[in-house]
Structures are given as C-alpha cells and as structure tokens.
Design a protein that fits this description.
This protein is an alpha/beta fold and 268 residues long. It has a single domain, classed as Rossmann fold, CATH 3.40.50. It is 47% helix and 22% strand. The chain contains 11 helices and 9 strands. The protein has a 7-stranded mixed sheet, with helices on both faces. Strands 1-7 form a two-stranded antiparallel ribbon. Helix 1 packs across helix 2, helix 3 packs across helix 4 and helix 7 crosses helix 11.
C-alpha cells in the first residue's frame, strides 16, 4: 500500500468544504464516484442488497448513495456517517427535498469510530470514498463491527492496480487527490479476511480509464466556464488541475490505478 505523509482528515474536510468538492460534483454528478448510477446498481446487485434491508454508508458525503438505495433498491432505512459537516448539511436538505428524511439519517463522526451500535445493520456500504481514510484497518474493523453476523460489506474504491505505482507517481497522485494512502485488491481482501469475513468477490471494474476520459472531455468541451467560476476564474489553477487530471488519466490507461469492487460476508 502506497502512503502519503501529512495528508489526513483535515485535508479531506477542506476539500469537501470548499471549491474542490464542488468541482468534483460538477464533473461527476451528485453521485461523486466513478460510474454513477450504473456503478451503484452493479454493486447493489452483486451484493444482494434489496427490499427491506437496513444499511450504513461510511463516508456518505451528500447521501446520494443512500438515496439511490432507498429509491431504486427499496432499502428500508439508511444511516450515513461522514466527518464533513458541510456535505452532511447538503445531504439533509436533499433528502428533505426528495421526501426521504424519514428513511435516511446522517451522523457527523469519524468513520473509524462511528458510535453506531454493533451488529445493527444488514449491510455496510461505501462508494469510492474509503481512499480518503487514513487507517484502512480500523475502517474495515468498524464496518464489520456495525454489520450483523451474516451481513454484507459492499464497497467500491480507488485502488492501486496490478501494474503498480512508482514512488514518484504515488506521491504526485496522492498529493493531488488528498489521499493519505491507496490500497490494493489484495490489501483490502486481507483486511476483510482478518476481520472474520468471507470474501465473495474482489475485482477491478474496468470503469476507471473511460470515465476519466469522460471527465476531461466534459471539462474541456462543455464545462470550462462552470469550473472556472467555482475556482474564482483562476485560469492558472485550472491549467494546473487539468495537468494533474491528465496525469491521472495516463495512470489509469497504463493499469496503475483502477476502481475496485468488493463484497464480503461477516461470518456467523
């Protein structure tokens, strides 16, 4: 697992409390993860998440994943945990606007120490967000603690792919993305096994590279003005961020980073 010093929760909170978070939502939509709706449906179907279940979304951001699960998978109730108040406030407003407040609640907390009751959910959910968490071991342990015996851990995340990152590539990528580290398929699989889970699947989705292509095309061909407005029409900053996106695009196309999909069951 590649790591980056001096990147932690404070840096992530700054991202999603400011213009950088708005930029990600501009180009990726309300579901700020690779693949949007199709990715969520793929994960839900592979994990068997459906009608009447209760779940917890760790690193829930604005709650789009929870609204998806309630609306399109008929999940009975969701609880979302995130450490950034601004995105939680936005999520509560959106749930109220969509008439989902009675089935979705938000909690401001560290996802590694959520304060939620043990064995209280049928499943734990995450979408391309656990890459922001410093202590992946504690995160997986907390997810397993929350879920009932026989329950499901289902998540996607940005991972280091098979071709691997050089130290220099990892430092540049992690610095740009504000990731404290980046796991591998094997790393997450080992953590799930260590925490008394049976691994159902762990795979690369193949979605990363074409979606980065899409985001760059959108920024260059349609959303340039909108993006500039968010960052105060700072063209130098826009060019610098664009260069980092192009660098990330190259990493994706050379098989060095990817989106991983994981489904596991808690023993018992």
């Amino acid at each position: 697992m590649k790591t980056m010093e001096n990147v932690g929760l404070k840096e992530v909170q700054n991202v999603y409390s400011g213009p950088e978070g708005e930029l990600w939502e501009l180009i990726m939509g309300e579901q700020i993860h690779i693949g949007g709706f199709a990715s969520s449906m793929d994960l839900a179907q592979k994990a068997g998440i459906g009608s009447g279940l209760t779940g917890v979304d760790l690193c829930c951001c604005n709650g789009a994943g929870m609204r998806f699960l309630v609306r399109f998978r008929d999940v009975a109730r969701m609880r979302g945990v995130d450490a950034t108040e601004k995105v939680l406030e936005r999520g509560r407003r959106r749930c109220e606007q969509e008439g989902m407040s009675e089935r979705i609640e938000f909690k401001l907390a560290d996802v590694c120490d959520s304060g939620l009751a043990g064995a209280s959910a049928d499943f734990v959910w995450g979408e391309d967000a656990w890459c922001y968490v410093v202590d992946k071991s504690r995160l997986i342990s907390e997810a397993v603690r929350i879920v009932k015996p026989g329950g499901t851990i289902a998540f996607t995340d940005w991972i280091e792919a098979k071709a691997g990152l050089t130290d220099a590539e990892a430092e540049r990528f992690l610095t740009f993305m504000k990731f404290p580290n980046i796991q591998t398929i094997e790393g997450y699989s080992d953590l799930l096994a260590t925490n008394d889970c049976d691994l159902v699947m762990a795979e690369q989705t193949g979605r990363f590279a074409p979606h980065v292509d899409l985001y760059l095309n959108m920024l260059n061909m349609q959303l340039t003005y909108d993006a500039l407005k968010i960052i105060g029409f700072n063209t130098e900053l826009m060019q610098a961020m664009g260069a980092e996106m192009v660098f990330m695009q190259a990493l994706a196309h050379t098989g060095k980073i990817a989106q991983g999909l994981f489904v596991a069951r808690k023993k018992g």
